[in-house]
Amino acid sequence: MSKVLQIENLGKSYQIGEYGGIGVQNQNENIDALQNVSFEVNRGEVVGIIGKNGAGKSTLLKLLSQITMPTAGIIRAKGKIASLLEVGTGMHPDLTGRENVFLNGAILGMSKAEIKSKFDEIVRFSGCEAFIDTPIKRYSSGMKVRLGFSVAAFLDSEIIIIDEVLAVGDAEFQSKAIQKILEITADGAKTILFVSHNMASVKSLCNRCLLLEKGKLIYDGDIDKAISRYMGYDTQMSDRNKVWITGSAPGNADYKLRAARIVAKGKTFEEPLSTSDSIAIEVEIESVQKAERLDITFQLMSEAGDFLAATSTFQISDSELKANKEGNMTLFSCLIPANIFNQSTYRINCLLLENRKTVVHRFDDLFKLGFTAAGRNPESWMGQAKSHFLPHLNWNITVK
Amino acid sequence: MRTPDSSANQDESWDLIIDAKKSSNRNHFKDFFNNRDLLSLLVKRDLVTIYKQTILGPLWLLIQPVLKVAIFYFVFGKLAGISTDGVPAVLFYLTGLTFWEFFATILKKSADVFTANQHIFGKVYFPRMIAAFAAVVSSAVKLAIQFSLFFIVWIYYLVQGAISPNLFLIALPVFLLIIALLGLGGGLILSALTVKYRDLRFVIDTGLQVIFYLTPVIYPLSIAQGSFFNALLFNPLAPIIEAVRYSFLGQGVFDSMFLAYSALFAILLFWIGLKLFEKTERNFIDTI
């Protein structure tokens, strides 16, 4: 395999503080956005780059796409690099779709002849055929995004750098875009670097993953392992019994989350959960000063961050949801019957809502739950793909 | 930046090497050649978009100088009674104004490159000089329309026998080149400095007005006398405007020594501008 990209001890430091004013020019405080990053990429690889906000992902992309220069290290590349940090860069609202395809294509590095030869395909892919001679200021935002992505999708560069652009557009277009990227990489001639916060799309596109943390490259390799580390799954089983004292309790000025538990019937908090356990998610809320209606919503997320299900106290009447007066402690308990979950890991978010509309507090990743299989391994009879849920439902079997 | 790698990795041929320790060694001619399509599309964008949704369209390019000349005629000619060296006043002002606008537009457009394209520059890389040059070319095209107005008026007076042009007219391309280099050089320097010091944005308009009055546009150099006259000649634009007027109208000061000074000044200014621009384009996105 041939190397197409070689990064050596790459670093970028920014000067912090105010620029330009009199008296502050001499202040030379620097912050390292990227430090000692080294890696190599071979032809045909699709590399995902993940990390929290401020980890240095954007800085790395900016350096690779030559938007700004590094303060340390060397970047070597073979072939043309195209960066797609945004769709439709440089498109002008007063120009028609046709004129913008040419302008945007040229800005991305295509020649006029190249764009001309691919023009029909680009327009067909965007689905904007009927409006191609209309100024794009009359386009809907979705159409603009589709047109912009379509131009980029036909780039002929050897190395393509993509930043979060798939996060735009509706679900249908997103899946079309992912299909297109898979198609582009299918012949192994193109190399893609892909930054995303959506672990599901990283998982479906990439065959290798880089994890950045505080400007440093802390993991390079297998996607699943990188995602697990990113999610903080080094401690697989998190505490299922959480209690906070007054001072440190999460919440806002009005409501505090004082306790949260996952209770499994007949099990201690330390014993591993099995899919055949019926469990209760419990939270205790203290009303510090207000006495409005307070609702709780639990969101169930997959390990990769997909939103799977939600449940809330909305359907409960005001009288039933006894007014939680000032100083009251209210216990909310949500029962989940046995045999719903699959042998997998889930995350639970908790939202506090006031008067059925205002989110007063949001607690992401309140719990991380892993379930072990009960009895037979479900995979042995459910096929290869693992579903998020494996509920036991009622079957009617009649012999006729 | 796009240099063949000689030191490290001899066994591999890299197309692009970005080294934090080495400064870029730009080949602007190659950049221009490789990005000629982008250049032409950016110029086209500038020209097409300005007059979309206007009724008069490019006619505005002619209305502006006509209005300005009318104002000059009444304020400086009639009210202040400033001499026009025996040249018909309308033609006198139009000559000075056309060439002054050539300088001022190029300077303003190129000074604005980083701020005007900040969004594109933050998302996509292409040689930044392309954007500066596109701004200059599109203003040159717009000015060509104003030049044609000037030529029509000039030919009218020529046929009437009111003026007597001379052979120095063949040096017109040189005059235009010197004016363009002065405008571009000054503009590139300002563009590089505005990235860090936004104050300069306010200085440009006022500064241009000061230079306008220090340049013999609305008055002939011949009425400026003594030490004021000497001071005026240090303005590199003054000898050029006078020389242009001398060759087109037969009236004016033509001093080859001061012209040589202008040319040298222009080349030096352009070179400084180019170097500052190259230095700025590396990291301006962090500052802007």
UniProtKB/TrEMBL annotation, chain A:
GO terms for cellular component: membrane. GO terms for molecular function: ABC-type transporter activity; ATP binding; ATP hydrolysis activity. Keywords: ATP-binding, Nucleotide-binding, Transport. It holds the Pfam family ABC_tran. InterPro entries: AAA+_ATPase (IPR003593), ABC_transporter-like_ATP-bd (IPR003439), ABC_transporter-like_CS (IPR017871), ABC_transpr_TagH-like (IPR015860), Bact_Polysacc_Export_ATP-bd (IPR050683), P-loop_NTPase (IPR027417). Coiled coil: none annotated. Residues 5-239 form the ABC transporter domain. Belongs to the ABC transporter superfamily. This is ABC transporter ATP-binding protein.
TrEMBL record, chain B:
The chain crosses the membrane at residues 55-76, 88-108, 129-156, 168-190, 210-233, 253-274. Residues 56-280 form the ABC transmembrane type-2 domain. InterPro entries: ABC2_TM, ABC2_TM_bact-type. Keywords: Cell inner membrane, Cell membrane, Membrane, Transmembrane, Transmembrane helix, Transport. One of its GO terms (molecular function) is ABC-type transporter activity. One of its GO terms (cellular component) is plasma membrane. It is found in: Cell inner membrane; Cell membrane. Its main location: membrane. It holds the Pfam family ABC2_membrane. This is Transport permease protein. It comes from the Bacteria. One of its GO terms (biological process) is lipopolysaccharide transport. It is a multi-pass membrane protein. PROSITE patterns: ABC_TM2 (PS51012). Belongs to the ABC-2 integral membrane protein family.
